[in-house]
Design goal:
globular; 173 residues; NADH Oxidase; single chain; alpha+beta; 5 helices; 6-stranded antiparallel β-sheet
Length: 173
């Protein structure tokens, strides 16, 4: 695995086309370790991850989400899920930030391993949350956050930044 460098941040791009090939269990575990290494409020770790390798289930996910058709061709789909009740008491919405940070760590680890991925949002779309919950038997106190479709890239994208100096404000607006 390539050590995370600043170049990996620019190389991380949404990959929506995949070539066939399984991802080793050791790599999947490494991706999940990276996801769980992210910042999270009060170190409450309000996350769970569902790993979908089964082709039939990936097809069902692809059909259930209007922007996740590539799930059918991905080697796997990881679904980060939040547990709002595990957040800091009285601040239950921090799980959203925690899951966003975790998902970005996951995407950066995918890039470092030479794989490709795309983040397909589920939460806060209530219809997507409910269909995902039904398909995967997710308990009511757990909220599916996103589909992260992962595989061997079937498309090549140049590294880039979307830096815009007009969006940067020092000391005040």
């Amino acid at each position: 695995m390539e050590v995370l460098k600043i170049d990996n941040l620019f190389a991380r791009r949404s990959v929506r086309e995949f070539t066939p090939g399984a991802i080793a269990d050791a790599q999947i575990e490494l991706l999940l370790k990276a996801a769980m290494a992210s910042a999270n409020a009060g170190n409450r770790q309000p996350w769970h991850y569902i790993v979908i390798k089964d082709p039939d289930t990936r097809i069902k996910l692809a059909l259930a989400h209007p922007y996740a058709k590539m799930a059918a061709d991905a080697a796997l789909v990881i679904i980060p899920c939040g547990e709002p009740g595990a957040s800091i008491p009285g601040l239950n919405d921090y799980w959203i930030q925690d899951l966003a940070a975790s998902t970005e760590n996951l995407l950066l680890a995918v890039t470092a391993l030479g794989l490709g991925a795309v983040w397909c949002g589920v939460y806060p779309n209530s219809e997507r949350v409910e269909v995902t919950r039904r398909l995967l038997n997710i308990p009511m106190h757990i909220v599916p956050f996103a589909f992260v479709c992962i595989g061997y890239p079937g498309e090549e994208k140049e590294p880039r930044t979307q830096y815009n100096a007009e969006r940067v404000h020092y000391n005040s607006w």
